[in-house]
Structures are given as structure tokens and as C-alpha cells.
């Protein structure tokens, strides 16, 4: 329902904007809306986000090789109980809820054409939340290391473990 206000996706001159000063999202969606079988993963390094948001929950990356809350690194990626991502600050899989990260995740991958709130550039994509946006270089390196470790594991196991992280978004302000 909010698509008409999302001028960055399709600018019709609304709110005094410049017509067609956008990314041509509807034209891209005629070709594809993404892929939701965990083969395309976007890491989102932020302060966290509401991964249970109704426009995001279906697109959150799931580490299917990890057993929730058992205190064991089941997939041997170096992170214990990282079911849906990683919180560098807490050194655990409990992602903090923040509004900025939720907005960023929504722009990248909010479910489309579902009659709920907004739409992302990719309707079908796996979003990997990584709480690690900071002015501390060590914190940021830890955040990026999580994505890299999962990408390397995915490559080393021919896609059986880890995640095919193809891009990372970071908003450092």
C-alpha cells in the first residue's frame, strides 16, 4: 500500500519529484523479483533490525544447519546458535531490534505484492542480519567476518553449509 510513496523505486513526479528519477523497479520486476531458496544472500550490517517484521520475516536468511538454543556450533562455522544472523555486540545470535536497520532491510528485501506496508527492491531474497555497525574498526571487521566466514563455508561445502553472501550493505552514517 505504500508503493506510491516510494519515489526511489518508481518516480511519477509525486511530492514534487522529478518524473523517472528512480531505479526503474517495476521494469526490473517484469524480469525477476529475486530468488528465495537461500542461493542469494544479502548481509545487512547495521545496529540490528526487526527480523520478525511482517514484510521481512519471509525473507530472513535461515541457517538450516544450526539447531536453535542448544549452545553448540552445529554447522561448525565458528558461531553458536546463529539461526538467522549474528549480533557482534552480544557475541550471539540474538539480533537487536532497531528502526534504522529495519528500514534498510525493507528497502533491500521487503516482500512485494503482499498488501502489507512497503516493498523492497528484491521481493524474494535472503536477508542476513548482522548487528555490527559501529565506529570501532574491530566491531566492523567482526561483522564482515561473519559474512565472509559463511561465504567461505558455502564455497568449501558446495553450498551445503554457510551462505552465498553476494553483497553486504552497511550504513555507517
Tell me what you see in this structure.
- There is one protein chain.
- The protein is built from three helices and four strands.
- Helix 2 links the parallel strand 2 and strand 3.
- With 173 residues, the protein is an alpha/beta fold.
- A four-stranded parallel beta sheet has the order 2-3-1-4, sandwiched between helices.
- Helix content is 21%, strand content 12%.
- The model has no long low-confidence stretch (mean pLDDT 93).
- The radius of gyration is 17 Å and the shape is globular.
Question: What's this model, at a glance?
Answer:
This protein is of the alpha/beta class.
**Helicity, as a percent range:** 10-25%
Radius of gyration: 17 Å
What is the CA–CA distance across the termini? 29 Å
Instruction: List the secondary-structure elements in sequence, H or E.
Output: HEEHEHE
Which structural class fits the helix and strand makeup?
Answer: alpha/beta
**Averaged pLDDT:** 93
Strand content: 5-15%
Strand order of the largest sheet: 2-3-1-4
Q: Characterize the biggest β-sheet.
A: 4 strands, parallel
Question: Helical stretch count?
Answer: 3
Strand tally is 4
Q: List low-confidence stretches.
A: none
What is the approximate shape?
Answer: globular
Amino acid at each position: 500500500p505504500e508503493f506510491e510513496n516510494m519515489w526511489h523505486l518508481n518516480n511519477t513526479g509525486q511530492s514534487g519529484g522529478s518524473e523517472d528519477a528512480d531505479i526503474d523497479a517495476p521494469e526490473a520486476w517484469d524480469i525477476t523479483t529475486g530468488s528465495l531458496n537461500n542461493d542469494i544472500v544479502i548481509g545487512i550490517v547495521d545496529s540490528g533490525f526487526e527480523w520478525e517484521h511482517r514484510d521481512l520475516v519471509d525473507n530472513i536468511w535461515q541457517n538450516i544447519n544450526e539447531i536453535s538454543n542448544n549452545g553448540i556450533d552445529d554447522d561448525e562455522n565458528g558461531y553458536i546458535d546463529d539461526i538467522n544472523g549474528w549480533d557482534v555486540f552480544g557475541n550471539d545470535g540474538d539480533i537487536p531490534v532497531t528502526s534504522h536497520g529495519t528500514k534498510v532491510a525493507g528497502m533491500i528485501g521487503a516482500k512485494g505484492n503482499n498488501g502489507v506496508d512497503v516493498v523492497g527492491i528484491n521481493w524474494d531474497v535472503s536477508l542476513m542480519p548482522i548487528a555490527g555497525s559501529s565506529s570501532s574498526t574491530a566491531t566492523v571487521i567482526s561483522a564482515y567476518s561473519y559474512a565472509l566466514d559463511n561465504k567461505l563455508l558455502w564455497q568449501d561445502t558446495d553450498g551445503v553449509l554457510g551462505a552465498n553472501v553476494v553483497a553486504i550493505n552497511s550504513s555507517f552514517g
